[in-house]
Amino acid sequence: MRFFTKLFKGKKQQEINNDSLFELSCSLEKNKQNFERLFDRCDDFVKRDFILMRNRKACIYYFESIVSSENISRFILEWLMEPMDTCVIKTAEKIKNKFLPSHEVKITKNTGDLLKAIYDGDCIILIDGIAEALIVNVRTSNGRMVGSPQIEVSAIGPQEGFVEDIHLNLALLRKRIKTSKFKIEFSIKGCITKNTFAIMYIEGIANPEFIDELKKRIERIDTDGVIDTGHLRRFISDNKFTPFPQEILTERPDRCVNHLLEGRVVVMMDGSPFALIYPSLFIDLIKSADEAYMSYYMAMFLLFLRFVAFLISTFGAALYIALTVFNPGMIPTQLLITIASSRAGVPFPAFIEAFIMEFTFEILREANIRIPKPIGPSISIVGGLVIGQSIVQAGIVSQAMIIVVALTAISAFAVPGYTTNPALRLIRFPFMIAASFLGMYGIISLFVVLLIHMASIRSVGVPYLSPLAPLNLKDIQNTLLHGPPSYQRYRPAFLETLNPVHTSKKNS
């Protein structure tokens, strides 16, 4: 009995997750009944009956919120309602070729394709006596237009950023990559949401194994819907239990183009302004788009600065705890006296002191995200100053700890990539715990464990620590040390590209 109950529930759930498909017939009334029953209680679903060229009944269906009503009137109804010889309307093909001036018209019998077209913003035309339907592209963009990137801000690079419309995003890439070798393959996933994904790569450069692997992972997704690319990366990541991002999350078209030319694969989703780039490595966490537009020396200086910021954000608070509690002899005498005097009267050990400040800062950061934008900056600044000053005057924490926590927090923001910050925020606390129990030995031991963990991570099969582990000096020059263009002749070897040498030959 339980088996039949589960079977019934499974079938019921399948009916809920999937639209009930039906076959088109030559009877317009029957087709209309099927569509109207399917979209019952969908008030934004519009049905428009009209007479096709004097005496043939027809009907058009669309969602009014995602189509251009002006295009429907100008390029469909005005042409099809014009009185003409009825002998030319025996087939849908003749109507498409002679009476629909729209740039994109398709003919199909598959109701699954018809439903997808309606959801995407097309309209469908049903004609009495014809067991086929016409799909006409009348989409309109109701979202925000292309503007400056919101997160990956660049002072000297292009100021265009992706938006939530995948067609606009693809246009930004197409105008930068003018070759037929730039391939875009679409995929539909999500039982209810039916999200559109685009897998992009340059044929003849990208490794086909990476492309096939990403396609397989996306095909294996079995869910009601994918909300955003941030949600999508959970499904296709190699290691689900690591704080480190295994993909590059970007909203910059120029950065996508740069990685496509290297031989990587870009995954984009309709409704999201961010693209995912695979494979991704640890060194990508400290690189930004600005390096391509700067001189070699300035790019190397900023890269070194970000790496130092990464170390300070990860080990800053832990080193303070270890040095003040277990290894005070490693601190210069005058500095040690200053730290000791600032901690006079503080009732908590350095470990509790550090945790209080770190948690306080995390709460302030989270609150700043939730506060409405008009009052957010003022509240965050005033709140930080008031709480910091009050907590020092109350003798709960020392001034030295305020400086250490502020420095680690600012250093975390200096590391580019929004997905990198959560990793730095998480791994900071285990190092603080290790330092409070074992001092420098605890930090070193946990650092070795972290390196082992990072060495075990793969991004679409590529070792996460490449080109450092396994070591490849040529790749270090190509990816980490951005020398003059004459020294950047080879693509990274860990990408296993089909064409390892950058070439100036035209591809068409």
TrEMBL record:
Chain ranges passing through the membrane: 303-326, 400-419, 431-455
GO terms for biological process, alphabetical: spore germination
A GO CC term attached to the entry: membrane
InterPro entries: Spore_Ger, UPF0353/GerABKA_families
Keywords for this protein: Membrane, Transmembrane, Transmembrane helix
Signal sequence bounds: none
Superkingdom, natural source: Bacteria
UniProt record similarity statement: Belongs to the GerABKA family.
Designated name of the protein: Spore germination protein KA
